[in-house]
Amino acid sequence: MGRPGTAARRYADAAFELASRDDTHDAWLEGLETAVQLLGDERVAAIVDSPAVALADREALIERLLAARVAASVLNLTRVLVQRGRIDALPAVATQYRRLLNRHRGVTEAIVTSAVPLSAAETAAVRTKIESMLGSSVELASRVDDDLIGGLTVRVGDRFIDASVRGRLERLRDQLVVGAR
Fold this sequence. Notes:
Helices cover 60% and strands 14% of the residues. It contains eight helices and four strands. Strand 1 (108-114), helix 7 and strand 2 (138-144) form a beta-alpha-beta unit.
């Protein structure tokens, strides 16, 4: 069996190819995100993902939920995922699609992790600083990690910037250990 995410990547590639052909990138992104949100409800997911429920009934539920909210192409992709028993891959498909779209538009993805949630102003300041460092637009995701004590870390691709109190303390400890020899 393939690696997890391989199927999601293939579906996202196919969706991106269709979106590129029809110049409907944003409609696909919005549709995928809407489908993930609506089908992510526990009650809906229990029905849509259950082999005990007839396929026709699962497809009818998807039709009722999505037909008026997403493009026909997104609805068709969702149907295919249900038919193949892969609806659980939909969030990964949406994530992979967003990455493809960002790469196509020259947008760099970054993750900022802080000890406490950042305010809108702090997030904007971090985004501005990263954009100036990279010279490109940045899509910034925020995470909270209580272990940081204070400060923040930023991951951009394989680059890691540690401006956390924990990181500073670890570097200080390493210097003290090396100096004590």
